[in-house]
Design brief:
By secondary structure, the chain is an alpha+beta fold. The chain has helices at about 5-10, 15-55, 65-75, 80-85, 105-115, 115-120, 150-165, 190-205, 215-225, 240-250, 255-260, and strands at about 60, 90-100, 125-130, 135-145, 170-175, 175-180, 185, 230-235, 265-275, 280-290. Helices cover about 45% and strands about 20% of the residues. The strands form three sheets. The protein has a four-stranded mixed sheet with strand order 1-3-4-2. Strands 7-9-10-8 form a four-stranded mixed sheet, with helices on both faces. A hairpin with a 7-residue loop joins strand 9 and strand 10 (about 280-290).
């Protein structure tokens, strides 16, 4: 019996298929090298513009999720939807869609000439870039970087310091004028009351003084064991530093009035983080005067 040789068992492939296989092999050999280098050049163009615009600002970091967001921009997705789909939460974000730029150097020149105002922002520390020929899609962002609960005591101390600094000088809150007021003292019971509301707002994704259980700031202070004569509350969402949240409260007439109210003796402060919520981070500040 004659045995079949290996050559007799092989299959014939059409010439077109052989050409496609050859092209695939070339892609694996060279495309995987050229691709990342091409991407690096595109990102470096933006990073170089940042360095020229703001030499003292932090260098931009190449962020994979922002690269994915840039790719989604290229497919016509709006910036917020692109960031959401990429799983990236930004405190602030920027986008540029550039067409007809023959080289990365041309992109750098454009950004330096017309976009330095945005690139100087020191909070913008991450970026992602996609290049296709002479087209570039760029996403840059200030990452959402809330404080850790492990640092809650330090955060509370800093908020107290900023609030007492504000109270130490006369201030106008909207149409109402306040004289300098005595410093507040951090109170554990009021901090528990504030934490109750901050956690509830983060869990329920809402920003209101009335809790989902119907409680008021006074109810929460009572439940926390604070024997009050007067109670007030400030709330906020989205700010990731003590400086930002106190600054925003001072810009609001009602919140500013609570901070400057001379009747108050004590303060509690708390925050709760839930990145998937609308605000990301929720703050509650409870003021009180004992009986």
């Amino acid at each position: 019996m004659r045995r079949a040789t290996p050559a007799a068992q092989s299959h014939r492939y059409p010439a077109a298929m052989l050409l496609r296989v050859a092209l695939l092999l070339l892609w694996f050999c060279f495309g995987s090298i050229a691709g990342p280098a091409h991407a690096d050049e595109a990102f470096d163009a933006v990073a170089q513009a940042r360095r020229q615009c703001a030499s003292s600002a932090p260098a931009l970091r190449d962020q994979p999720q922002l690269r994915d967001a840039a790719a989604r921009l290229a497919r016509g997705t709006a910036l917020k939807a692109a960031l959401d789909a990429s799983g990236y939460r930004a405190q602030r974000s920027l986008e540029w869609r550039l067409t007809g730029y023959a080289s990365p150097q041309a992109v750098t020149q454009y950004l330096v000439a017309s976009q330095c105002g945005s690139l100087r922002d020191p909070a913008i520390t991450e970026a992602g870039v996609l290049r296709s020929g002479s087209n570039y899609w760029i996403v840059a962002a200030a990452p959402f970087s809330p404080p850790s609960q492990a640092d809650a005591n330090d955060v509370a101390s800093r908020v107290l310091s900023l609030v007492n600094h504000a109270r130490a000088q006369p201030r106008r809150c909207g149409k109402e004028s306040f004289n300098a007021a005595p410093p507040l003292i951090l109170d554990a019971a009021l901090t528990r009351a504030a934490a109750t509301q901050a956690n509830a707002m983060a869990a329920g994704d809402f920003l209101e003084h009335r809790g989902r259980d119907g409680s008021t700031p006074a109810d929460r202070a009572t439940r926390a064991g604070y024997h009050w004569r007067s109670v007030g509350e400030n709330i906020a969402m989205g700010q990731t530093t003590p400086e930002a949240v106190v600054q925003d409260w001072l810009k609001s007439p009602e919140h500013c009035a609570n901070i400057m109210e001379p009747v108050f003796q004590h303060m509690g402060i708390a925050f709760a983080v839930r990145p998937s919520s609308e605000g990301g981070i929720y703050w509650a500040q409870t003021f009180g005067r004992t009986r």
